[in-house]
Amino acid sequence: MAGGDRGTPRRDTRGGDVARGSGVSRRAAVLLGCGVATLAGGAAIASRCARVTGSSTRSSSDSSASGPTLDQRVSQAVASLTLEQKVAQMFMPTPEALTGVGQVTAAGETTRKAFASVPVGGLCYFAQNLIDPSQTKQMLASADAISRDEVGLPLLMAVDEEGGTVSRIGGNDGFDVDNVGDMRDVGDTGDPQRAHDVCEGIAGYLSPLGFNLDLAPDADIVSGTSQTMARRSFGTSADVVTPMVGQAVRGFLDGGIMCCAKHFPGIGGVEGDSETEAIQTKRTLDQMRGKELLPFEEAIRQGIPMVMVGHLSCPAVTGDSTPASLSKAIVTELLRDELGFDGIIITDSLQMGAVSGLHSASELGVTAIQAGVDMLLMTPSLGESYQGVLDAVSTGTLDEARIDESVARIVRAKLGYAS
After folding, report:
1. Position 45 confidence tier, pLDDT thresholds 50, 70, 90
2. Glycoside hydrolase family 3 N-terminal domain: from which residue to which, for each copy (predicted)?
3. Cα 323 to chain center, whole Å?
4. For the chain, how many structural domains are there in total?
């Protein structure tokens, strides 16, 4: 997955297409809720974040002299979308998967045509898409303008920017931004404020570029011999990781960007790598409650807008080898019902080896949605997965009301953070 929307042979000096009709001059300001609220103090931040995630103690449907409430705006926005548009909002592919272009570094006519066909809810960008600040700002602004033109909603523009070994901007030669380093080193300081400051700093360079979602922080607790998460996690115990994750969430939100705790219910103690193979934990639910779930619970308390579910199997919890991302017992019964999370639940990449062979591309998204997932990250075939969900609604396998539930959560986040 690599950097330019090359819908025509015409190329600019950055390797992307000439962004004709891209709407760059119409770039919408990214007024991210929690970042704006920072100006008014901590109470305002907490109120805004709670409202967006649906955890406010005061109903957002209360009447307001200033206009429609957030609940009313969400309902109106969802009602304005066709079924095809609603289903598309549940997908977050790479720009390459959306356009069919080998390397996307701009959002021009090719992106506009692709978006008209499948107006996805978000795009996930990687280092190959990001050349320098000017190019990145123009690309993201253009993509957002296209989304607003097509469906009247901002686009979730996401990046994996954890720091250390997972960094697309920090340390990238095209950007004058240092890599903040591994979160393990942050955890080793024993100071949660350090996690806050580092993540607020990451938000501070992502937001001006146009990103409104960072797929971080990592909320896993490292144990066992696997080194997959060794440097990405804040540490090896719940006592260390839990407060670090909580303050990381506050740092991102205080810095004006949405964030995503991952990889629920915790892959830090699992052997192997879900990128290439099936992974499994032998932990029971009671054991998880006393360890792995604690950082996620803290993230929820701090107003996390999104949680990513990993692909680990939890047979001691679910009774079978179904990956967590496709399991109703994990997604709905545990994360949604027991932990009370009402923000966006997104899968880990559905191209990973741990899930890629379990279902066809047309069935995979349906299975995840049946489990309770709201957004599908990087399905193996965007077109097939998208059509598969539409067909499932047509046949009654999925109810449109179930689609509406997820779309309402997605729209709520967009209107609360990125309008």
Report:
1. very low
2. 82-412
3. 19
4. 1
